[in-house]
Amino acid sequence: MTSASTAAAPAGGKPRKGGVVTWACAPGFPPAVIFPFTPAERMGTRNILEFQALMYRTLYYFGSDGTPAVDYAQSIGEPPVWSEDGLTVTITVKPWKWSNGETVRADNVLFWVNLMKVKGARYGEYVPGYFPDNLTSYGKLAEDKVYFTFDKVYSKHWVLYNQLSTITPLPKAWDRTEAGPANASGDLADVEAVYEYLMAQQGDIVDEGNEHRTRWADSPIWSVVSGPWRLKSYTLEGVVTFVPNEHYSGPNKPYLDEFRQVPTFSDEEQYRMLQAGPHAENGIQVGYLPLSFATEPAVDPVVGGPNPLAGSYTMYPQTAFCIRYISLNYNNPTVVGKMFAQTYLRQALQSTLDQDTAVRDIYQGYAYRQNGPVPMYPRTDYVSPRQREGAWPLPFDPKRAKELLEANGWDTSRTPAVCVRPGTGPGEAGEGIPAGTELSILLRYVEGRPALTRLMRGFRDAAAEAGIELRLEEVYGSVLVAEDAPCKATEETPCLWEMCCWNGGWAYHHPTGEILFSTGAGGNFGFYTDPRADELIDRTVTSDDLDVLYEYQDYIAEQVPVIFTPNFPIRLFEVADDLRGFGPVNPYGMINPENWYYVEDEDR
Fold first, then answer.
1. Locate the Solute-binding protein family domain: which residues (predicted)?
2. What are the b/e assignments for 558-590, b being 16+ CB within 10 Å?
3. Global pTM?
């Protein structure tokens, strides 16, 4: 692994206790879920990494020093200990304190695992057949010790990074129903009722209003936290304020009095707030430079380019260990779902997205092309040799896309192209696509991001050259991800969305594909299914052989279950020059405001 680069931060000075930091958030995604057992339709950076993780710490914490690695000092769990046969792992739980004075125990870990055992289908990182389905037994060895016995020998690295990493210990205070205390940590029979109670306390996860969210701070449930922060308030206007958790047991206790998150509604608004400066009335100390406002190209996307806000702010690119893509809805019950099932059509779509021009002209060199399902940055050995250089396997080539469609039964003399050879034989369009079908697809994407709008318009225009009509629609971010969510077609949920781009993708711990591309996985938003992909993914989780990982990713790159888009830093952070302790930037997307501080006046 190599370290993620960070900006040269202002150094020196004695930390001063106190002060307030205001963060201007990205538009379109107010925190919608406080219960960390988050469903797939609400999995995202804003909900989990910038909100929940400040209050409820996972069993293992990753990325603190700027590298894609576990940080045991900030983890509730001690390093895992394995049996000689490689089947059983034992974990000692550190005696951290919950904010209500209780000690973190083995039962708190088992509470979460039992939730996954019963309600896994409602958790966004659950994958059928994997944790905890791949356990033959698990339980408590002592008040501070749990064990997990697996059904076969898996990669120990994969188990730590992709299985144990899903666990968030939950306090005893949450183990209850409306009628009173329960025992979901020890009895699976209690889990359903406890889950329903906690979801009722959470409130509607689809409702876009903030009224129910204003009650979270005073909740006897959500006010019990293990992390360095607790929620002070969530206003009707969407302003979220944290204060230090006085009982936090981990390292790096907060210096600040408050950490405040304010909503924004467009990149333009964000930039105006930054231009006013960190000491203006209602000034912000942490924000992000919208890519469309970068004034000069970046030579290196990890390091960045000249900062147009220099003198007031220092820029920190957050180059995350992630991929970005457009989701396709394979469960769409119309002919669109049948079209997505055709590999040639997905390849044609990918061939009409001009990543290289977008990297240069839209993203000013802050972006980089993404050929397949393994992140290109921070640089690792995980990327297959075929994908490390160039545009393999599907470079931008509208002419080739047009040829693919023509060779498979489409008349591309017009846009949208028309199916003229239905059927499932060679040279025919594929199952469920009748003659006369027009190749027209609705592509919805998040509003308020000018760079993304330019990318989508360029995609539309190039696709039209090949005979594909992309009908574009801008949608407010949290509405988009709630409506264009994983679904199965029923009378209540017709599941009619087609293509969806929320300007994001997925941040990995270890870049195997079970969470995104396995049949039935929580992160498999479009319900892609392919027996060969499942087989290759199963091999990656039992072996640390890089050739096995390369075979999987090269197959996915050719099959394009999603449309890969240019990758770029999650944010180009802009941090007030008098705020210290910001770096190194976490490559998994987490933030650590407990590390931030102002300095004593005489040291400024």
1. 80-478
2. bbbbbbbbbbbbbbbbbbbbebbbbbbbbbbbb
3. 0.91
